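User: Here's a structure from my thesis project, written as C-alpha cells. My advisor, Dr. K., wants to see whether a designed sequence matches the one we expressed. Can you design one independently, without my sequence as a hint?
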C-alpha cells in the first residue's frame, strides 16, 4: 500500500514538473520565434529614436548591465558578511532567531514595496535623486535576503570538524573562517548571487521609482544619472506606447535580449563558481 502511494505521489510530481517545463518552453519558444526577426546589429548597438519605437536598445542594455553589476557589488559582500556573522559569531538566541525570521519575511515582500522604500530613503532622504545609484541600492536590498539565506545554508553545510581542527592547530576564529570555512562555502554563496542576478535584471517596479527613464538616448556619465533599463523599456513598449500594436516585433526583440542577458550573466557567475571549485578542489 505504501509503495503504491509513493509511486502515485512521484507520478503526480513528475506530471506537474513536465507541465511546468512545457509551459516555460512554450513561452521561450514563442519569444524566440517572434523576437529573432527584430534582432540586428542596429537593434543591439543603436540608440532609440521616436520614443523608442524605432532603431535600437543599446542604452537600455548597458543600463541593465550597470544596474545588475552595481547591485551585486553592493549586495554580495553585505550578504556574505551578514551570513558569516549570524552563523559564526552571533549567539543562537531569540534575537538571532528574530533576525532570521525578519530576513525570510523580507524575501517575500513585493518588489513595489522595495521601490517605495528606495524612493523614500535614497531618492528623497539621501538626495541621490532618480539615478543609477538609487536603483542599484534598492535592488541590492531586494536581493539581500536571498543572498543571506543561501550563504547561511552554505556555511552551515561545512562540517564542524574543519573548524575544530583549525582552532586546535592554533588558528584564530577569523583565520579559521577565512582559510577553512569560506573556501568550502563559496559555491553555495555564489548560488545566492546567481539567483540575485536573475531577479535584479528582471525587476521593473523598484527601478520604476528610483532609476529608470523610458527614453534617454545618451549613456549615463555617472552613478547619479538616470538610465534606461530593459525591463522598464519593455513594460512601456507593451503597455504605454501609443504604437504598441505596430511595434510588436520590437517588444519581442527586447524580451529576447533581456532573457539572453540574464542567461549570459548567470553563465558568467556559474563559470566563476566552477573555476573557484577547481581551484580549491571542491
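Assistant: Designed independently from the structure alone:
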Amino acid at each position: 500500500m505504501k509503495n503504491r502511494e509513493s509511486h502515485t505521489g512521484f507520478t503526480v510530481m513528475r506530471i506537474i514538473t513536465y507541465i511546468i517545463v512545457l509551459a516555460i518552453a512554450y513561452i521561450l519558444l514563442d519569444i524566440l520565434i517572434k523576437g529573432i526577426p527584430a534582432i540586428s546589429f542596429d537593434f543591439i548597438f543603436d540608440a532609440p529614436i521616436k520614443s523608442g519605437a524605432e532603431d535600437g536598445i543599446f542604452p537600455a542594455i548597458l543600463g541593465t548591465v550597470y544596474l545588475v553589476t552595481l547591485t551585486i557589488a553592493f549586495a554580495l559582500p553585505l550578504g556574505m558578511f551578514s551570513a558569516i556573522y549570524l552563523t559564526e559569531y552571533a549567539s543562537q538566541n531569540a534575537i538571532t532567531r528574530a533576525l532570521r525570521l525578519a530576513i525570510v519575511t523580507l524575501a517575500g515582500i513585493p518588489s513595489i514595496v522595495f521601490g517605495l522604500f528606495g524612493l523614500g530613503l535614497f531618492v528623497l532622504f539621501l538626495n541621490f535623486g532618480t539615478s543609477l545609484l538609487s536603483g542599484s541600492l534598492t535592488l541590492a536590498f531586494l536581493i539581500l535576503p536571498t543572498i543571506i539565506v543561501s550563504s547561511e545554508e552554505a556555511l552551515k553545510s561545512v562540517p564542524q570538524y574543519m573548524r575544530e581542527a583549525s582552532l586546535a592547530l592554533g588558528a584564530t576564529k577569523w583565520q579559521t573562517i577565512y582559510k577553512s570555512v569560506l573556501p568550502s562555502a563559496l559555491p553555495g554563496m555564489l548560488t545566492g548571487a546567481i539567483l540575485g542576478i536573475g531577479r535584479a535584471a528582471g525587476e521593473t517596479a523598484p527601478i520604476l521609482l528610483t532609476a529608470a527613464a523610458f527614453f534617454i538616448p545618451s549613456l549615463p556619465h555617472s552613478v547619479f544619472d538616470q538610465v534606461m533599463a530593459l525591463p522598464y523599456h519593455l513594460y512601456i513598449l507593451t503597455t504605454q506606447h501609443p504604437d504598441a500594436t505596430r511595434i510588436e516585433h520590437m517588444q519581442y526583440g527586447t524580451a529576447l535580449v533581456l532573457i539572453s542577458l540574464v542567461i549570459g550573466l548567470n553563465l558568467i557567475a556559474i563559470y566563476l563558481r566552477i573555476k573557484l571549485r577547481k581551484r580549491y578542489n571542491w
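When you compare it with your expressed construct, this may help: The chain has one domain: 39-279.
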